[in-house]
Design brief:
alpha/beta; single chain; 10 helices; 378 residues
């Protein structure tokens, strides 16, 4: 009997082992098919904390792609020497070399962010003490003009008392000048979206100024670099930049005897001051490169602007019929410090004069170096 039970149990155990093997194989096959279908499962349906679901997860689930499609896939070896410097390894179609100051939403379709794109850029370098003057000036510019404020006193949030300030761009760095800001934040590739760039002081009266009309006249007379005429009876100014009451625009003038050996050269022509210049984007691309990093006051730059347009005596001018008043508020001097017995204002003015000399010397040296290089090539 005992032998019968032992010999009768062997087939039963064999059947059980076969079932186990078959079950294991089926489970492995089923698991394999589950595994290869996992990449198409929507990440957004997983019960994970929202903080763990990245924007990449969401975009992948919508497109039915796996992370490997973006991270591990092979891409062609690329080198395009004509790409912008540093971007030679990228396909030209993905490169965005220029930018702007358009404010965008954090939601919705990017193509629907902007109801209207400003065509011109207006910058003021400001302190909060001049808020009322700037408020009056900004109101002269329509929605076609993007407003950008550079804050030299560090006070930005207080400007929100003005409704327009909420749509303006605010950049703050204490005790800096507008040319310091311009060199660092107005790179030509950043402002290329704007046809004209206004780089203005904060102490300008604009009662007689109309921005739309100004643009019309600049375009009509082909001015690449310009400024509004200045009230002749208010503060010191060059003859070239004084307003004339009998015309819309002038491009030349008569200065003191001996000041202009050539009537087509500054300060009798091809000349505007640095308090309220307006540049076309093409002219600004040249001017920006001429601004020196360490010479922050811009003195001497006005005499060199003619290098950036040709013929300069035709493309630089003053718009007389849209004129401004220079209020001559020495706010910049208060940003200096007393040093070596000099008041803050004296120290600032001395540096202005020194920078003018330094800039002239650098231009002359650069000209000399260029001419010597040309001789070597010949």
């Amino acid at each position: 009997m005992g032998t019968f039970h032992r010999s009768g149990g062997a087939p039963r155990r064999t059947n059980e082992n076969a079932k186990l093997i078959i079950t294991t194989i089926v489970a492995m096959v089923f698991g394999f098919f589950i595994g290869i279908t996992l990449p198409s499962v929507s990440f957004t349906k997983m019960n994970l904390p929202s903080g763990l679901i990245s924007s990449l997860d969401v975009s992948l689930s919508r497109g039915g792609r796996s992370p490997e499609d973006f991270g591990s896939r092979h891409f062609p070896k690329i080198f395009v020497p004509t790409n912008p410097r540093g971007a030679e390894l990228l396909p030209p179609g993905i490169i965005v070399a220029e930018s702007d100051f358009y404010l965008r939403r954090l939601w919705g379709e990017p193509s629907e962010d902007l109801k209207k794109k400003p065509k011109y850029l207006v910058t003021f370098t400001v302190g909060f003490e001049q808020r009322n003057n700037i408020n009056a000036a900004v109101k002269k510019f329509s929605e076609d003009f993007q407003i950008l404020l550079f804050h030299y006193d560090g006070r930005t949030t207080e400007w929100d008392q003005f409704e327009w300030s909420k749509n303006a761009i605010h950049i703050s760095a204490k005790k800096q000048t507008k040319w310091w800001y311009a060199k660092r934040f107005l790179h030509p590739d950043v402002v290329s979206a704007y046809e004209y760039i206004f780089i203005w002081d904060e102490d300008l009266g604009v009662e007689h100024f109309n921005a739309e009309r100004y643009i019309e006249l600049v375009k009509k007379h082909g001015l690449e670099i310009s400024q509004p005429g200045l009230e002749p009876n208010n503060g010191l100014t060059w003859e070239m930049t004084k307003r004339r009451g009998d015309r819309d625009v002038h491009k030349e003038t008569q200065e003191k005897p001996g000041w202009c050996s050539d009537p087509h050269l500054p300060p009798c022509a091809a000349f505007v001051e640095i308090m309220a210049p307006v540049f076309s984007r093409e002219a600004w691309r040249c001017v920006w490169h001429m601004i020196q990093n360490d010479l922050v006051h811009g003195w001497g730059l006005d005499f060199a602007l003619r290098r950036c347009v040709e013929p300069a005596h035709e493309k630089i001018g003053v718009v007389d019929s849209q004129w401004i008043i220079h209020q001559v508020i020495p706010s910049l001097g208060s940003q200096g410090e007393s040093e070596k017995g000099k008041t803050p204002w004296q120290g600032v003015r001395e540096r202005c004069r020194n920078e003018w000399t330094m800039f002239q010397n650098r231009v002359a040296e650069a000209d000399k170096e260029y001419m010597e290089q040309q001789k070597v090539k010949e």
